[in-house]
Amino acid sequence: MTAAEIAKAVAGGKMSALDATEAALARIKQHDGILNSFTDVTADRARAKARAIDADIAAGKEIGPLAGVPFAVKNLFDVAGLPTRAGSKINRDRAPASRDATLIERMEAAGAVLVGALNMGEYAYDFTGENVHDGPSRNPHDTTRMTGGSSGGSGSAVGGALVPIALGSDTNGSIRVPSSFCGIFGLKPTYGRLSRARSFPFVASLDHLGPFARSVADLALAYDAMQGPDAEDSACTTRGLEPTLPLIANPVSDLRIAIAGGYFQKNVFPEAVEAVSRVAKALGATKMVDIPEAARARAAAYVISTTEGASLHLDRLRQRANDFDPAVRDRLIAGAMVPAALVDRAQKFRRWYRAELAEIFKSVDVLLAPATPCTAPKLGQVNFNLDGVELPVRANIGIHTQPISFIGLPVVAVPVPLEPMPIGVQIIAAPWREDIALRVAHALEKMGVVSAPAPRGI
């Protein structure tokens, strides 16, 4: 059942919130030994919340739009009573969180039921979903393949239908990459749209939080529940609520939709080309727009990510270097050595690049681009061949996502159900226009061009 179907059934008395919760816990127990998507299952808390919802319904109290809907969160979200591990060994020594992250509070205020915390790449510095401490999360369509990262457990849990909604984070592509590999919908909102309060950071100037789901309506339902200003996150917008669910069924015929050209036509496998082609054809999009200096934008995103990440973890690197994933540790050490002049140039270029994209969005409403260059690689795969060049997988999976999150644009990743593995396409909109990206995604879903396939590997 979708989240919307569960909430409707619970509100209508056809299903109890406790029954919905027990069903999710049973699926987790049955399948997570294979998928390895969860690091913590909060069964007692979930049952208590579900019983409280059922009591409110029995008493005739008003309930929220997500009543009884199970959800889970990437383990960099604070969950009261659990240490916020952020995929690391070091953070397990932290005191348990005393309060939930803002987005968990808002989901539960809407009636959703938290059932656990999810596996992720260490400190969110990962595109594969492979964690040296907790083991890799596994792709629900082929468990020998990657989920993508760093929100790999989120992708696996929703793609495997263990929960209808999960929350993750996206700095350089960590919502869009797992969405692509696991065949689900993911929303990276505009930078600053959703509060990051009480979540463990990676790169404060690039970090976004957002939802995964198996349908566009569920994505909008969760996104709308989490909107709103939050003084505890200094980057969070002061804009009021701008609901998207009532708008997603609006026609898209009036929208100006273009295909991202140039850089985004390169470094792609045939399956990525086919996915973008199917989406563009369904939408009648033929215009191609070149995004200037996208390669430089990706390079600048790397510079900012590695230096801000290194600054955040410098004391941990000095005191407990051997407790890091070696691949993460080495990239953070390298980041600590980047000259300040390069960081300054990257930030100046960022301002120029944002202005250039703002000009493009004066003449188009939506850009289409690959989410990943290929379908999910095999677990442990080190290299792949992109345009005739042998390149490391881990560093280059986000080749098409980094130039977009670099300036905080909203994106819906939509799954194209190719055989034998799905792959995602980015629906990119102007700042604060999540409603447009969701509208296009919904139209594609209704046409049957994009959909979340049933898990085939479990």
From TrEMBL:
GO MF: hydrolase activity
Record flagged with keyword rRNA-binding: no
Any Pfam family the entry gives: Amidase
InterPro entries listed in its UniProt record: Amidase, Amidase_dom, AS_sf, Carboxybiuret_hydro_AtzE
Location of region: Disordered: 132-153
Biased composition (Basic and acidic residues): 132-144
The Amidase domain, residue ranges: 19-435
Listed SUPFAM superfamilies: Amidase signature (AS) enzymes (SSF75304)
Entry keyword set: Hydrolase
Xref: PANTHER family: GLUTAMYL-TRNA(GLN) AMIDOTRANSFERASE, TRANSAMIDASE
Protein name in UniProt: AtzE family amidohydrolase
Species in which this protein is naturally found: Bradyrhizobium amphicarpaeae
